Amino acid sequence: MSASRTKAAGRPRSAEKDAAILQAALQLLATQGYTRMSLSQVAEVARVSKSTIHLRWKTKADLVTAALAAVRMVEAPPAGGNTRADLVAILDDFAATVQRVRGMALIGTCLAEEAHTPELLALLRERTVLPRRDLLRTVLEQACCRGEIRPEGDLEAAVSALLGPFYADYMAGQGGRAGWAEEAVDLVLAGLRPA
Amino acid sequence: MSASRTKAAGRPRSAEKDAAILQAALQLLATQGYTRMSLSQVAEVARVSKSTIHLRWKTKADLVTAALAAVRMVEAPPAGGNTRADLVAILDDFAATVQRVRGMALIGTCLAEEAHTPELLALLRERTVLPRRDLLRTVLEQACCRGEIRPEGDLEAAVSALLGPFYADYMAGQGGRAGWAEEAVDLVLAGLRPA
Amino acid sequence: MSASRTKAAGRPRSAEKDAAILQAALQLLATQGYTRMSLSQVAEVARVSKSTIHLRWKTKADLVTAALAAVRMVEAPPAGGNTRADLVAILDDFAATVQRVRGMALIGTCLAEEAHTPELLALLRERTVLPRRDLLRTVLEQACCRGEIRPEGDLEAAVSALLGPFYADYMAGQGGRAGWAEEAVDLVLAGLRPA
Amino acid sequence: MSASRTKAAGRPRSAEKDAAILQAALQLLATQGYTRMSLSQVAEVARVSKSTIHLRWKTKADLVTAALAAVRMVEAPPAGGNTRADLVAILDDFAATVQRVRGMALIGTCLAEEAHTPELLALLRERTVLPRRDLLRTVLEQACCRGEIRPEGDLEAAVSALLGPFYADYMAGQGGRAGWAEEAVDLVLAGLRPA
DNA sequence: CATGAATGAGTCTTCATTCAT
DNA sequence: AATGAATGAAGACTCATTCAT
Q: What does pTM read for this prediction?
């Protein structure tokens, strides 16, 4: 009885190909959008045959879903106990990540496909949006405990006020406006300052 | 040059068809997205033949561009001189419009196609985003004049702080959160309250 | 108002292409069978693009159905009033037709597809099998009236006895056995001879 | 030649798998037809991997051929010495067998593939059609010896007259017409009654 | 031996676009 | 002007077969 008791029969599936396919899919999803992205392109970019993709994921939607599910939140910026600095760090990291992975195009695809393939937006939320919001909320809760801000009924509005300007700026064509994070944080902290 | 003659020869193009096509295109753009929307669908919805579309716009991109260009901001909510109420009215109208025309899907399509057809996002900005921001900025400037808020270098950040929560909420899956407009306005006004 | 009141707008559909496609489909159906036959082949044989086929028939099954529906019974051999000669003539014509159009392969395809696409066998029956049986039954009924054969409850069994040997011979590998028609007719007439 | 050694080296091939594969192939051949039947399906039904099939038969055609070759005539109904009863018994058994194994679909497949893979029809003939005809012919010969029917040149026509109505009925959509066997036998015996 | 991975060819179908009427 | 026919390119997906474990 070797250690490989559960070893699967036959040739094992190549982990490199798994990764290459998912990465290619994610990249093409951001650059082409869901509908325009073709499995041929994915196969070509991943240096793999189309059938190899179909062997792993039954349909295009399955593949894209898997690619989005594989997206992992980058590790949270370390919290230092300084409310303002911590919030700014999280927001800056957010902006940097979005830019790095062509995030707005990816978001756009998920929004555009919401009626047709709602899983996409759902996954994006679960994997990237909500975890980031959790980080921000945690910092705010601590600030609350320390009496730095007024205890509000819930902090959702504050979180949206922190992240929102990023989207609004992008829509206005002012994508990477310098100092946006600081301004957003200052506005929220000022608005919530204890009486 | 006969092209400059006041009256074109032959049968004039039907204006009704122009409108029907553009409207159908816009609707399908929102419900299907750019790539998924087909000219056959547009033709069917507009009760027109595919060739009639091509007669007016050379390519699919041209048609979609024209459809977006035809989008007009709905009339602004009347300003009443009460800063808080005016801002809330504008934001509520914004949210209502987005919901009515499946705006987030339309925005998603334009974001998704940004790399391929940047005109789409540019037009959306010009026709809908910037006009709305102008309304908000005007109200803020008046409030500034009346000394209700601190004069900032520019008010862009404030405008983004007003609109942003809408986007952030949508991304978080809290699309129509009640009272979002009031909360955003109050936060901004509190943050900008004169010392 | 011209005579062409109901003239369809636009370019008229080419009747030659209609015919070429249907004929190609029928030929390939007989030589390749339903599943093996591809629309590419049909397009190639008919000297037409694949899309031209899809313009007329939505799916492969639709095309094949139309092709089978277009099969027309060859005109009946003239009845001369001589029962034996008339029956033999019909059977000989039957055998000749089957051979000419690779009928057994066509029949085979319809039988093989019965579970999947029952319309095929149904059409084959309606267009070729049943009309031929009607001819035979009519001749038998006249013979009955003239007292040449015993009046049976119904003549279906007799008709099957006339046609059956053809199929049985084919299955035995004795496809075109000479004199099969005469033998079958003689057997039936002898079996039904009035007491 | 080591190939002629009584015992092959290495693990022997599983006989159960052989049987399971052939049976699955035969079943799917009848239900799906040759072209539609896929090796994946066979593998799945036989609870075996695709490669295990290819290990035994090089191609799909080989497998199907082997499956048909494995078909054995079920044992003949016991002959009791009564010509009419014996013939009817054979025909009834024939009809029952065809129905049990979806025989007409199988026959259809072999007919449809005749141009492409003539071995199929050849095997079907050799294994099922001709043995059955032999049974019938033997009974007829004995009847001949006993003087119950006229001695004909050969009895092939009579055999086809016995089996034929079954096929003809099926083609007419009267598949299992009650009493067909008796009627066919009576007709033939009447037609061949000694003068 | 037996298995699962990997692949290239091929399937039906859809689409944006150009032609003929 | 307006329509419907015609088409080439491309898309997702399936399959028989060969390879590596």
A: 0.89
